[in-house]
């Protein structure tokens, strides 16, 4: 049985029969009823159907992926937000997924490049390609993946931003950090997050997620259960990192978590202090570059990759940013 909905400027008819879904918009309800009656007859006769695959829309694929596939991933939150945005922003999202072509993907890519940076577009294209692959391989909704036929924008060169000693001092002063004194507000907590990041190369979210049971100061490591790549890892601790964490453990008392900060609030507070002390072009994630470069002076490449959580040691080159002068100092 078809359903009909009054829309501005016409009537929309929707047909669901034998696993086939189809819809159309018409000027009058009579035209919508006539089309739906004919379409149901065609479906019954098996006319114009590719086992029902061609009648699912891209919107339905994005929503099904969000409900069934995204929850299985570590990066679920980011992916679900991005999928909702794709549903709202892609002009051809209501078209049948089996009929979407590479030219439409290319036009969408070019429009997105006017709005956001190329790395963001590359990530969105990767996600969209995954949706098409799932629809093609698992759901049999389409026979191809048009995203694969479209050239992706080039990545920007990796950041090589280092944090100078003067900048580190300015930030700590802005946070109100006092060595050895337990934090009494969010800014002082952020100072500890910042310093632990510089000592360990851990990501902000990994540090903020630390719990008492995962911190092993006697054995000098913390155990990360959930990381960006999905692998658990044990992060060795320097003597300074041990001292910082001991202060936090003592301050937490019976609380399970070491920090009360969230990632969102930490980002806001970091940018606020950075701007207040007039430091330009610095993000919290640059601590990972700085820490990796510092640790490279002490560890061999395999130990460093294990500590930072890189499966491929070659990926360390993105974060290793030693200056020529620093390298030269080790030649004599």
Task: Summarize the structure in words.
The protein is mainly α and 332 residues long. The chain has 3 domains: 3-49, no CATH class; 58-149, DNA polymerase, domain 1 (Orthogonal Bundle), CATH 1.10.150; 165-328, hpI Integrase, Chain A. It contains 13 helices and 6 strands. The strands form 2 sheets. It has a 3-stranded antiparallel beta sheet, covered by helices on one side. Strands 4-5-6 form a 3-stranded antiparallel beta sheet. Strand 1 and strand 2 form a beta hairpin. Helix 6 packs antiparallel against helix 7 and helix 7 (186-200) packs antiparallel against helix 9. The longest helix is centred in the middle third of the chain and has 20 residues, at 118-137. Residues 49-53 have low confidence and may be disordered.
Query: In the CATH hierarchy, what is the architecture of the largest domain at level 2?
Result: Orthogonal Bundle
CATH class of the largest domain: Mainly Alpha
Strand order within the widest sheet? Answer: 1-2-3
Q: Which quaternary structure do these chains form?
A: single chain
Task: Note the beta-strand portion.
Answer: 5-15%
- Please give the count of helices: 13
């Amino acid at each position: 049985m078809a359903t009909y909905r009054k829309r501005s400027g016409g009537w929309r008819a929707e047909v669901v029969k034998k696993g086939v879904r189809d819809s159309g918009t018409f000027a009058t309800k009579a035209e919508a009823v006539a089309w739906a009656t004919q379409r149901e007859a065609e479906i019954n006769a098996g006319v114009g159907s590719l086992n029902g695959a061609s009648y699912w829309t891209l919107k339905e694929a994005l929503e099904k992926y969000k409900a069934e596939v995204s929850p299985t991933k570590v990066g679920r939150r980011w992916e679900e937000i991005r999928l909702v945005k794709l549903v709202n922003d892609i002009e051809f999202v209501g078209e049948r997924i089996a009929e979407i072509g590479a030219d439409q993907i290319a036009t969408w890519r070019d429009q997105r490049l006017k709005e956001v940076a190329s790395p963001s577009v590359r990530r969105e294209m990767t996600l969209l390609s995954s949706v098409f692959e799932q629809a093609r391989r698992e759901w049999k909704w389409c026979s191809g993946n048009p995203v694969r036929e479209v050239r992706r924008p080039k990545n920007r060169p990796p950041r090589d931003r280092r944090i100078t000693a003067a900048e580190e001092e300015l930030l700590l002063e802005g946070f109100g950090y006092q060595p050895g004194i337990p934090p009494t507000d969010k800014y002082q907590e952020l100072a500890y997050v910042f310093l632990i990041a510089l000592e360990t190369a851990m990501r902000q979210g990994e540090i903020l997620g630390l719990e008492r049971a995962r911190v092993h100061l006697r054995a000098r490591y913390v155990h990360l259960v959930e990381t960006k790549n999905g692998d658990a890892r044990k992060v060795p601790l320097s003597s300074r990192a041990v001292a910082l964490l001991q202060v936090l453990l003592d301050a937490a008392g019976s609380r399970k978590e070491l920090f009360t900060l969230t990632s969102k609030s930490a980002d806001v507070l970091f940018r606020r202090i950075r701007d207040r002390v007039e430091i330009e072009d610095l993000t919290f994630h640059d601590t990972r570059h700085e820490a990796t470069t510092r640790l490279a002076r002490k560890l061999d490449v395999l130990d460093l990759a294990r500590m930072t959580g890189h499966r491929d040691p070659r990926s360390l080159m993105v974060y290793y940013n030693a200056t020529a002068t620093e390298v030269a100092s080790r030649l004599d």
